[in-house]
Write a structure and sequence with these properties.
homodimer, about 110 residues, 3-stranded antiparallel beta sheet, DNA-binding
DNA sequence: TTAATGCATAGCCATTTGGGTATGGGATTG
DNA sequence: CAATCCCATACCCAAATGGCTATGCATTAA
């Protein structure tokens, strides 16, 4: 059972790739060549990273003539947010339990 | 410049490792042997993963006799939450900009 | 229609990574 | 004190990963 978090965390774990995603978050809708500047790697590498981000459901691409525009996918970070709040929830629940325990012990 | 997100995303990108972290979120304060069951890997591998989680600032360990208890670090997910909301922010800002643009065009 | 541009795919290679077994040291139990 | 248990470190190995160059296919520009 491969969780959806797998692809997300994997995709964002590489600095170059996360940099591409961040740039798309800031500037949105950019061509591959447009992303090439700050990436610091060759064009094929950028393409490869974008494909991974796309597979993870983080970005989408749109063809226009000989250009390919990439942009952040709608609800890209939904899975990440959900997972994080679930984990935080467990954490808080345990503190609630501890809290209740202490209250009961206090009586 | 190695961002703090690097270690976090890296650490959580591996399913086995994320599984360990999730288990600690749910149950908190568990020994290495206690974690061994669900992990599905050998004890040395669990220890190695825990070390990586610890280095990433996600968990802490506490020695007690011959047992080592691991638990989720306070504010473990802070960095993750901050990064996510920052990215979401950029996204929303762009929509605000678009919104403003449309309003201005509307006049 | 030729030349140039944008981009993806295909190989190739060095490094990293996740897993295993072997081992040893400290703490507890018999 | 001997046996056992908990856990970390040291190696080793196959597979995955991230980078590169070469190349080819569209699309646009000359």
């Amino acid at each position: 059972m491969t969780e959806p978090q797998d692809a997300i965390f994997r995709a964002l774990s590489d600095p170059t790739r996360r940099g591409l995603f961040e740039r798309l978050c800031r500037n949105g809708d950019t061509t591959v060549v447009g992303l090439l500047g700050e990436a610091g790697v060759s064009q094929p590498v950028v393409s490869k990273h974008l494909k991974i981000l796309k597979t993870a459901g983080l970005v989408r691409d749109r063809q226009q003539g000989r250009y390919t525009y990439y942009s952040v996918e709608r609800d890209a970070l939904r899975t990440l947010i959900d997972w994080t709040s679930e984990m935080s929830g467990f954490w808080n629940d345990r503190f609630d339990d501890l809290d209740n325990l202490l209250k009961r012990m206090d009586q």
